[in-house]
Amino acid sequence: MQIYMPTNVYSETHCVKNHSKDLAALGTSALVVTGKHSSRVNGSLEDVQNALESEDISCTIFDKIEENPSIETVMEARELGIQQKVDFVIGIGGGSPMDAAKAIAMMIANPVERESVLYEKRKLPALPVAEVPTTAGTGSEVTPYAILTIHARRTKQSISHKIYPSLALIDSRYLKTASLDTLIDTAVDALAHLIESYLNTNANSYNRMYSEKGLSLFSEIKEALVQCRRAGKEPVLTLSDHVFEHLMQIAATAGMAITHTGTSLPHGLSYPITYEMKVSHGKAVGIFLPGFLTYYKNKEDVQFVLKQIGFQTVEDFTAYLDELLGTVEIPEELWKTDVKSILENQAKLKNYPFKMEETTLYAFRR
Ligand SMILES: [Fe+2]
Question: Whole-model pTM above 0.90?
């Protein structure tokens, strides 16, 4: 058994300001990677700029990261980083900017390499990366993964390199401006990470500690989330500070879990659905959780997972998810291609500990 969790994590209110010295320890010139709007609205970008200024560190902002970032965007940011001679990268936002920050940090450190190197199995250096999450979903602030959109293949895929952030600064205040859909979809993404890591070929007692803790934290806030959906109002109007803090902790804990195991079939099936139907990542993953639990062969483990979240049966869990997420009608042709591509790809099947039949996988769509 092995456990390896090298990211220095601070999780507290005002942690960007409180730990500006930890940021300064990473370099002297930062490339801040973020999206167009949300980091300005929730105050995280301003906090990072102030922290860098207080430590006399120069700051270049690249704010063109789109949802499901593309290789093209990574390459554009690399050019800016090289031009400005940056020596570390800070990702601010949800999974998209945080994942992109890792890929950009690697491409800047290897300025003569072409974009194809992202998907080559070679050992390459990367600049240090700090992450400031503003959603509670991917856990990218602690994982070594960076998932990019590959337009040429009409899907998303993690790059071949593992780039652990050196520093994660987690402040749940940034989550408070998240929309209802973003908050719920990302919470379900984190829940999927916990489940797919627990029920995984690579699972061991160490990483299962993360999943167990995350699932029990989720059980404490699951009712608040569904009530928030029923209210149909902005989350900040219905959720307490305690729930926002729990959500951030669940996402980071789930990130620590998948760092050791990877994800499984719900994630594998979700990528073409997100690409072709523009369904958000959390929702695209969440719709496959009921099928995953229904057909998973070790029923004892499934029962344990359900108990940790506070459900008696898969049916209760499914009804809960349906209310939280709604349903998605996947067209027949897309579904057939999706199932076929998973079954033909050993890399995507290897985290599922049992043999998977086509008819079973096909039944994951409800
Ligand atoms: Fe995910």
Answer: yes
